[in-house]
Design goal:
2 domains; Rossmann fold; 7-stranded mixed sheet; 7 strands; alpha/beta
Length: 263
């Protein structure tokens, strides 16, 4: 039995993008190019709208296909595996310690951290929304069983309001989660996550920390240090750590970084 961690770019999403592009192209040919509609304002408007839709669809579909290929656990690149192992490498828990993975998806990061810390317990939480319908608590549990890992638990949770007391965990981790949450203040969500971290605990959170999504992350690092956190670092993962600059540019991941530190 092998684990099935799925793909961070769902196959259904890629297929839907290609199908939508095909529909736009067909409509473009029928209504924008053929003689079905007489020349005039309406035909010109349809020509422009459907052409733009087709071009946008092609660009989006190709981008999604590149992402799917790079993130596949079964392909040559295996970027997902490289990222997961890289984040897990920052986590070292004491015997009997507790860790939290926010937005665990298919359980990959939770399980990787648990394997590295067999004397600790890890909890993975997720809302498992319709956007990632193939991810579920059952899938996480099956993957843990396939990996021979028993020191994990999975359950539903909301990253914006965690159902855990202050200073519950010795470590908190997360991967590519917060940028998907619709909010104007993702730094506040990070603070909600870090609220559950014990004094002396470590965190390793990877995401696309672009300024448009997160604001000034350098200032946020300073804020954490002013709050008493130590060794806080914002490390770019697009300069060879997980991917090179050329690859990150092709996949629009130039803002990817790893926020690490100790409380």
């Amino acid at each position: 039995m092998k684990p099935d961690y799925k793909n961070w770019m769902p196959k259904g999403m890629v297929c839907t993008a290609f199908a939508a592009t095909a529909v736009f192209f067909i409509l473009f040919i029928v209504f924008g190019v053929s003689g079905l509609i007489k020349p005039g304002t309406l035909r010109t408007a349809l020509f422009i709208i459907l052409l733009l839709g087709t071009i946008t669809g092609i660009i989006s579909s190709v981008w999604m296909a590149l992402m799917y290929r790079a993130f596949s656990y079964n392909g040559k690149r295996k970027l997902s595996k490289q990222v997961i192992e890289g984040i897990a490498g920052y986590v070292s828990l004491p015997e009997g310690g507790k860790g939290l993975d926010v937005g665990c998806g298919s359980g990959a990061l939770t399980i990787a951290c648990a394997k590295r810390n067999p004397g600790a317990q890890f909890i993975g939480i997720d809302r498992w929304g319709k956007e990632y319908a193939s991810f579920s608590k059952t899938l996480c549990e099956k993957n843990a069983k396939a990996e021979g890992v028993s020191n994990v638990k999975f359950g539903k949770g909301d990253a914006t309001k965690l159902d855990f007391a202050d200073e519950t965990f010795d470590a908190v981790v997360s991967n590519y989660v917060y940028h998907n949450i619709p909010t104007n203040d993702r730094q506040a969500i990070l603070l909600e996550t870090l609220r559950t971290l014990k004094k002396g605990g470590c965190f390793a959170i990877h995401d696309t920390f672009s300024k448009s999504k997160y604001g000034d992350m350098r200032a946020f690092v300073k804020k954490l240090k002013d709050m008493g956190y130590t060794e806080v670092r914002l490390i770019s993962t697009t300069d060879g750590m997980f991917m090179n600059k050329s690859e990150s540019g092709r996949m629009a991941l130039s803002g990817s970084a790893l926020l690490t530190g100790v409380k």
